[in-house]
């Protein structure tokens, strides 16, 4: 879903600071859930992720508990150099109303062909079916490394890690963090300024350089020296794209209860390559089979839906067969509104196996044929976690087909209503910011939908160093 947004993003920043007290790390994450809304403030509290609310998702409990610990993500392959930390500005795409397919927002100039990160440009890496943990890793295109969130990332173990990046002084940054955490008190602002501009390759080299220099993982230092939501933000940031998702997967499945809404965002709509790296990485870091862990958290048809997602066998063909699109539209209708009861597995089989381009074509054709948006059909025909998961996919397919409108709405939902859903706000910002051109498009859409920038919204919900950390991450784009 993220492959459209690959490119350099060296454009000027624009943002300021703001306010509101942070929830403590062990405190409640705030009432409410995801909540899709009507496209203009103040939207209704439609909570994304919950049981029976009509037009959205509801709260998932347990988000106030401290996340589980994980071993730092490390071991990567050499990558070419970078320039200065990237930055971007953003404009304002058109207004969109909820309940119907979203219009495609203008993202400004098309993203450049140069890939974000060190590896040279090339076609997106695609993987077919994965044969299990003992299968050899997928082969990248010549000159192309692994990709995650639509951007190149450092190659995970057993690849040989790179120790130096020309143009980036990891030793200098490691020393800055060591000094900021030495003795009594911690210089949180220096840590924020050091970590927030880094891309995945720089973060990886810094993490390993710091451990070699100080003798302790960077993650452990941050956990020891920081607290509350500032700790949560900077720990997640320090783990990089893949390491951060592995950390969140463990969080979603650890302890009492399952954070089902988090599982939706981590596992649904992913590329075959991303699923491969998540399964391999989870086994490497936690020593467990991710498929078995997720299966143990779910039941019945929802379990089968996530088994489909974790199979890593989505169609990723770039072209769209319009005849197949029309057949899928009719199959979806007959499996839902066109019959007594709902054929849940039939709907899952289409929405979880088709390519992003194909799903976008379905989302455009379905309301033309049956006068109801695909996402609204899902809301009408399903309930519980399966409804939330399929709704997440359907909303991502509508409009731009890349989930930009959906993700802007979900960021709003994390801040809407009484109390801020801090954990959701944090991981949505941190995860989105790695693909900086796409994050720029999300910020554009947020501005268009709600009449203010994402930065201003975050300033109104946070305060102190926690606020400065999130705003600094947003300002890098």
TrEMBL record:
The keyword Lipid metabolism does not apply. Pfam families: Annexin. Residues 26-36 have a biased composition (Gly residues). Residues 1-25, 46-58, 65-77, 92-101, 125-134 have a biased composition (Low complexity). Residues 1-147 are annotated as: Disordered. The keyword Chaperone does not apply. Transmembrane segments: none annotated. Keywords: Annexin, Calcium, Calcium/phospholipid-binding, Repeat. One of its GO terms (cellular component) is plasma membrane. GO terms for molecular function: calcium ion binding; calcium-dependent phospholipid binding; phosphatidylserine binding. Coiled coil: none annotated. Gene3D superfamilies: Annexin. Residues 102-124 have a biased composition (Pro residues). Belongs to the annexin family. A pair of annexin repeats may form one binding site for calcium and phospholipid. PANTHER family: ANNEXIN, ANNEXIN B11. This is Annexin. It comes from Kwoniella dejecticola CBS 10117.
């Amino acid at each position: 879903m993220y492959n459209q947004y690959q490119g350099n993003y060296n454009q000027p920043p624009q943002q300021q600071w703001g306010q509101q007290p942070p929830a403590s790390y062990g405190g409640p994450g705030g009432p409410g859930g995801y909540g899709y809304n009507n496209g203009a403030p103040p939207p209704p509290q439609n909570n994304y992720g919950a049981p029976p609310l009509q037009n959205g998702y509801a709260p998932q409990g347990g988000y106030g508990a401290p996340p589980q610990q994980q071993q730092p993500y490390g071991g990567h392959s050499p990558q070419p150099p970078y320039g200065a930390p990237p930055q971007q500005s953003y404009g304002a795409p058109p207004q969109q109303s909820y309940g119907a397919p979203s219009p495609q927002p203008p993202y400004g100039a098309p993203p450049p062909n140069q890939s974000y990160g060190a590896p040279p440009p090339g076609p997106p890496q695609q993987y077919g079916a994965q044969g299990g943990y003992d299968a050899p890793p997928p082969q990248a295109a010549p000159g192309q490394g692994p990709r995650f969130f639509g951007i190149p990332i450092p190659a995970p173990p057993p690849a040989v890690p790179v120790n130096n990046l020309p143009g980036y002084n990891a030793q200098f940054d490691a020393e800055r963090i060591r000094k900021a955490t030495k003795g009594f008190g911690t210089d949180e602002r220096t840590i924020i300024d050091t970590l927030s501009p880094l891309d995945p390759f720089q973060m990886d080299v810094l993490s390993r350089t710091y451990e070699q220099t100080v003798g302790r993982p960077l993650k452990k230092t941050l956990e020891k020296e920081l607290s509350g939501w500032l700790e949560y933000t900077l720990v997640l940031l320090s783990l990089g794209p893949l390491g951060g998702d592995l950390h969140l997967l463990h969080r979603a499945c650890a302890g009492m209860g399952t954070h089902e809404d988090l599982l939706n965002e981590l596992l649904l709509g992913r590329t075959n390559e991303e699923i491969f790296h998540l399964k391999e990485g989870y086994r490497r870091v936690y020593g467990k089979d991710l498929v078995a862990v997720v299966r143990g958290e779910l039941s019945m048809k929802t379990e089968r839906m996530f088994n489909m997602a974790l199979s890593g066998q989505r169609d990723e063909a770039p072209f769209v067969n319009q005849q197949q699109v029309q057949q899928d539209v009719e199959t979806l209708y007959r499996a839902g509104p066109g019959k007594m009861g709902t054929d849940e597995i039939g709907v899952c089989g289409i929405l979880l196996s088709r390519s992003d381009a194909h799903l976008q074509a379905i989302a455009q054709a379905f309301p033309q044929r049956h006068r109801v948006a695909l996402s609204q059909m899902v809301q009408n025909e399903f309930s519980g976690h399966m409804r939330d998961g399929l709704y997440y996919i359907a909303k991502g397919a509508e409009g731009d087909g890349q989930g930009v409108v959906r993700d802007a709405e979900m960021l709003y939902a994390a801040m809407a209503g009484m109390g801020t859903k801090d954990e959701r706000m944090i991981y949505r910002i941190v995860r989105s910011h790695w693909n900086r051109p796409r994050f720029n498009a999300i910020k554009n859409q947020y501005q268009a939908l709600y009449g203010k920038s994402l930065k201003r919204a975050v300033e109104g919900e946070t305060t102190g160093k926690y606020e400065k950390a999130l705003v600094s991450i947003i300002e890098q784009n």
